[in-house]
Amino acid sequence: MKTIKPIKLSSYKIDTNEHLTSAEMGKLWATYMGNSMGKCVISYYLQHVKDSDIKTLLENALKLSEDFLKKTEEIFKKENFPIPKGFSEEDVNLGAPRLFQDEFYVHYLKYTAKAGMSIYTIAIPLVYRKDVKEFFRYCMDSTMDLMEQIKEILMNKGLIMKPPLIPIPDKLDFIHQDFLNGFFGHVRPMHALEITHFYDNIENNVTSKALIMAFAQVAKDEKIRKLFEKGRDLTTSTIEDYMQKLYDEHLPAPSFLDDLVTTSTFSPFSDKLMLFHKMDMFSMKIRAFGNSVAVNGRRDIGLLYTKSFLKIGAFVEDAAKIYIGKGWMEQAPHAPEREKLASD
Known about the structure:
The protein has helices at 22-45, 52-78, 102-123, 130-156, 192-218, 222-248, 271-295, 299-325, 338-343.
């Protein structure tokens, strides 16, 4: 049912002949890079999947990635915008042995669908050109449809538990002076939003941990492998800290997915793809921490997220240094160097 009244404006018209803004360029570029990587990863998953429902889910996800890539490329070509190199068949070995069990694929798709939706939801209020605006609305709607299929499979097959249950309030209440306490005096129970973000962060991190554990098994470059091992241990510590916060409230937490990684040491992906993937996933954690801090009201929880932020930030910086050193880092669209232009 539509509840918003239409507004007819004629003084300003947006058409597809307008130049792309920085927001439109940036979000289209990020969408292309992410989906070129996703296409490689999902194509490999499809080589080993046995469960028919999960196979259909992967096929749907692959079709979306291919469609998003095609539509992004069409807009770029219209603007004579250089097509990013991204990732291609040279970054995936479809003949590599199985590295994950089928169940992992569903958790992986949930994590990456969340990442995609974060790009699209931020883009939608910032883009104005009609074709770009319609594209991101399409991306958002399609990814939401995929997310519904993901959740249905997770629940139907008993692969996940819902966020913890808490009592419905019996009356309206107001905050007292001890609301911010976390270390001394009376410490209040966590409220619903704090619980939500702990659950979400744990859910994301157990998927991230299983993936980086697998990448550490198969990485060819010794420096990259050691970085993955460092990231694995860091993620394990983070998960355990977050789980303990829920356990302290006598609430359940999502479980680890480590058992869904096989013992294969033969890499299905290039080191370049794996390093980009983990750098991107850890960067997404920083955004998740920001969202978590925004709704938090306890000092002990705020300190925990601050420590996580610093550790994750250091990992992303280390990963970026290696990525740049290898000559793999593509330049995102950027503002002109005015000082350099003036000196030429």
